[in-house]
Structures are given as C-alpha cells and as structure tokens.
Design goal:
Distance between the termini: 78 Å
Largest sheet: 5 strands, mixed
Strand content: 15-25%
Family: Belongs to the bacterial ribosomal protein bS16 family.
InterPro entries: Ribosomal_bS16, Ribosomal_bS16_dom_sf
Number of strands: 5
Keywords: Ribonucleoprotein, Ribosomal protein
Biased composition (Low complexity): 111-121
Number of helices: 3
Radius of gyration: 24 Å
Order of helices and strands: EEEEHEHH
Biased composition (Basic and acidic residues): 100-110
CATH class of the largest domain: Alpha Beta
CATH topology of the largest domain: S16 Ribosomal Protein, Chain: A
CATH architecture of the largest domain: 2-Layer Sandwich
C-alpha cells in the first residue's frame, strides 16, 4: 500500500482549513484516511503558532513506515526540523516572459539607434 502524508481540505467555501493526514495514495484528497497527524490553517498569520500544528512523533512513525510527504507537507516538516531541507531549483522562475523579452529587445535596439545617431553628429 502506497502511503502519503498529505493535506485533506475542510472548511467552507473561501475559508480553507486543512488536516495533515496519513492516507493511502489511491484514496481521494478529502476521502478516507488512516490517521490525522495535524492541522494547517492558511488564514492565520505566518508567525502564528496555531497556523501549522503537527504531531511530530506520529509523523516520524509514518515516515519510518515508508510514507512519502507531499511537497507542501514536506515544507512544513522542514520548518519543524523533522526532515532535512531539500534543495529546490526553478531556473525558469527568474527569467522574464516572451513579451517582456521582446520589450527589452526593442528598448535596447532603440537605445543603440540613439547612440549611433549621437555619434554621427
């Protein structure tokens, strides 16, 4: 059985609240789970200690049993010091989009033409 430690959404529309659960990966996101391991309330301030609550002992048990945390839960566990920090790389994040690159090229071309015109005088 492939186990995941993941978020199960609760709360009403536009008021999200998540449970951190250990579940079979084949079950639906908000469906059947094996054990509740904590909570996450994204509406609270980032420095509020009630925002993320984790039962670290049980999470360590499930990790030892082979459960894989999802990306978001892995970040919570890194912040709590349960798992080692993983190096992430998104090389495309810092590059401008196609339209911005075209604007930059047009601006550089215009500046080059103005510099050439100034040199000709």
């Amino acid at each position: 059985m492939a186990m995941k430690i993941r978020l199960a959404r609760g709360g009403s529309k536009k008021r999200p609240f998540y449970r951190v659960v250990a579940a079979d990966s084949r079950m639906p996101r908000d469906g059947r789970f094996i054990e509740k391991l904590g909570t996450y309330n994204p509406l609270l301030a980032k420095d509020n200690e009630e925002r993320v609550k984790l039962d670290v002992e049980r999470i360590q048990y499930w990790l030892a049993q082979g459960a894989q945390p999802t990306d978001r839960v892995a970040r919570f566990l890194e912040a709590a010091g349960v798992v080692a920090k993983k190096e992430r790389s998104n090389p495309k994040k810092g590059t401008p989009g196609k339209a911005a690159q075209e604007r930059a090229a047009a601006k550089a071309e215009k500046a080059a033409a103005a510099a050439e015109e100034a040199a000709a005088e």
